[in-house]
Design brief:
The protein is mostly helical. About 60% of the residues lie in helices and about 0% in strands. It has helices spanning about 5-35, 50-60.
Amino acid sequence: MIEVEIKTEKAAYKIKKVQLVEEIKKQLILLAKSRGIFDFDLDVEKLDTIEGRKEIEHSIEPLGV
């Protein structure tokens, strides 16, 4: 398989991805606070493993997401 990528597009993609993840985290924390959950934290590093994904799914379940 041959992949062709443009370095500037890849860098822009990475920046946009980080911005989107941060915005999602911010919005989930606001949602948690509005539902009375004040100790909510989202560790996106956990998304790298299946166990971590299940833990995150469990933690956001009370938010109705």
